[in-house]
Design goal:
heterodimer, A: 113 residues, mainly beta, globular, B: 113 residues, 7-stranded mixed sheet, 4-stranded antiparallel sheet, 11 strands
Chain lengths: 113, 113
């Protein structure tokens, strides 16, 4: 199964915009791209999901190019509380038509004062 | 309140002593899954279930069993735990497909001595 690829870590400062890119070369035609946020010792939490072009909600934007082989999570004006691990997830077809979601290893974002 | 619950939250056991970690969701979700999380390896799926009596292996199923006799419950069974199963375990559920938004439980930290 293909895996997603993300940077292992990123650093930023309060008030800056942060962009985290995820590579998913083998994304299937009907797969959606979902991003999750995880704080230490907590379960991941849904941030945003998209299929193509751009999606925006109250916390983030998701940019997906036409070929859908990558996606970029954009966090506007980060604060210290955005320090977390961010996972990119796509559902991939396994043989037999079942779905096995594959989380990347995540990107550890540290926001500095 | 919509939620996924896991029990116990913390467990210390010894090699070979069978244990079960329970998972329950109150959202009438069809899809449930178990993940383990280890430092540097991100989230890896152990087993998943697309509906009652339907289960299948994820990426790292060795040493684990699951069952799905009811829609709301998806217990994880370790018949003969070993130290390499020391990990943080998460249960998750989603509507129909793995690419639907997944709701994660609070996690179970397991230590096998």
């Amino acid at each position: 199964l293909a895996k997603t690829t993300q940077p292992i870590s990123m650093d930023s400062y309060e008030g800056q915009e942060v962009n985290i890119t995820c590579s998913h070369n083998n994304i299937a035609t009907n797969d959606y791209i979902t991003w999750y946020q995880q704080f230490p010792s907590q379960g991941p939490r849904f941030i945003i999901q998209g299929y193509k072009t751009k999606v925006t909600n109250e916390v983030a934007s998701l940019f997906i190019p036409a070929d859908r082989k990558s996606s970029t999570l954009s966090l506007p004006r980060v604060s210290l509380s955005d320090t977390a691990v961010y996972y990119c997830l796509v559902g991939l077809h396994a043989s037999g038509g079942s779905y096995i979601p594959t989380f990347g290893r995540g990107t550890s974002l540290i926001v500095h004062p | 309140e919509a939620q996924v619950t896991q029990n116990p939250r913390y467990l210390i056991t010894v090699t070979g002593k069978k244990l079960t970690v329970t998972c329950s969701q109150n959202m009438n979700h069809e899809y449930m899954s178990w993940y383990r999380q280890d430092p540097g390896l991100g989230l890896r799926q152990i087993y998943y279930s697309m509906n009652v009596e339907v289960t299948d292996k994820g990426d790292v199923p060795e040493g684990y069993k699951v069952s799905r006799k009811e829609k709301r419950n998806f217990p994880l069974i370790l018949e003969s735990p070993s130290p390499n199963q020391t990990s943080l375990y998460f249960c998750a559920s989603s509507g129909t497909y793995s690419t639907d938004t997944q709701y994660f439980g609070p996690g179970t930290r397991l230590t096998v001595l």
